[in-house]
Amino acid sequence: MILQDTWNMLRISLLMPDYKKGMKLNLFEDKNNVDEHVDVYFSNMRPQIKQIIDIVKSDRLSLSGRPADEDIDDGEEILIDPKEVYYLDYVDRKLFMYTGNGVYRIMKTLAECEELLCNYGFVRVSKSNLINIFKIKQLKPDLNMKVYAYFDNGERICVNRSYKKEFDQYLQKMRRMV
């Protein structure tokens, strides 16, 4: 199973020039084998390795939410893969998740999402925003030490100057891990 599609690898390599191009994958089919197992060899724990482990353990993270424009809570929720999420925005005591397919309201706190998604490329950039660094197309500096993250869907989010140091550290950490 390949966890990263070519487009995400290209995007990562553009944001992170020292990104290693993939990892070695060996698959063996043995019809006589009754004990299926997965061995993972790694030199250091990276987000991709953590995702592989989560998938094998069937702990693959998904976020549940309902379309933001629905006022009636009928209990129906949609499961969304974190790779599809551009950013999360906390507005009027409600948390919204922005994807390419729409906006969804999720019933978690921003702090809970930050903890859940830290290994999936999400970092806090302001009091009310978490962004997915794998969806960033471009980073542009602005006045007053602000940086704007431009996404491939055309939207932008400001990296608040009080979160800029943490944001830069997270990017450096991800460069080392990826």
UniProtKB/TrEMBL annotation:
Domain HTH LytTR-type: 78-173
Listed PROSITE patterns: HTH_LYTTR
InterPro entries reported for this sequence: LytR-like (IPR046947), LytTR_DNA-bd_dom (IPR007492)
Pfam families named among the record's database cross-references: LytTR
Single annotated GO MF: phosphorelay response regulator activity
Domain of life: Bacteria
Protein's UniProt name: LytTR family transcriptional regulator
Species this protein is from: Pseudobutyrivibrio xylanivorans
